[in-house]
């Protein structure tokens, strides 16, 4: 059985679903697994990004990056988001913003 074809529609669907997960701060050094996020329907930026990453991977996304960094250099806290690459383009997907 081959890898299913990944589409921008699938990426948008999962990004919308991730955005709908209720934000709940877990702690700077704690992570919820995708399964915990799914079960509780809550997560912080790390949990929501990891959940989205896992769904995109299962949907056949060929190249993904889970990014942990600062949105702006002046930000005091770090943030997490996903970058998906498809058909020569990159898509920044931030399920917490």
The H-and-E topology, N to C, reads as HEHEHEEE
Taking pLDDT < 50 over at least 5 consecutive residues as the criterion, the unreliable ranges are none
- Mean pLDDT comes to 92
Q: Biggest sheet, open or closed, and with what strands and sense?
A: 3 strands, antiparallel
Instruction: Bin the strand percentage.
Output: 15-25%
Q: Total helix count? A: 3
Instruction: Provide the spatial order of strands within the biggest beta sheet.
Output: 3-4-5
**First-last Cα distance:** 36 Å
Helix/strand/pairing category? alpha+beta
Overall number of strands: 5
How helix-rich are the residues, as a percent range? Answer: 25-40%
Shape: globular
* Rg, alpha carbons: 13 Å
């Amino acid at each position: 059985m081959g890898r299913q074809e990944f589409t921008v529609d699938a990426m948008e669907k999962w990004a919308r679903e991730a955005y709908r997960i209720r934000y709940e701060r877990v702690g700077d050094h704690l992570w919820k697994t995708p399964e915990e996020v799914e079960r509780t329907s809550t997560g912080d930026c790390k949990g929501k990004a990891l959940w989205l990453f896992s769904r995109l991977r299962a949907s056949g996304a060929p190249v993904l990056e889970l990014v942990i960094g600062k949105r702006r250099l002046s930000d005091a806290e770090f943030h997490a988001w996903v970058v998906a690459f498809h058909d020569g383009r990159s898509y920044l997907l931030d399920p917490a913003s």
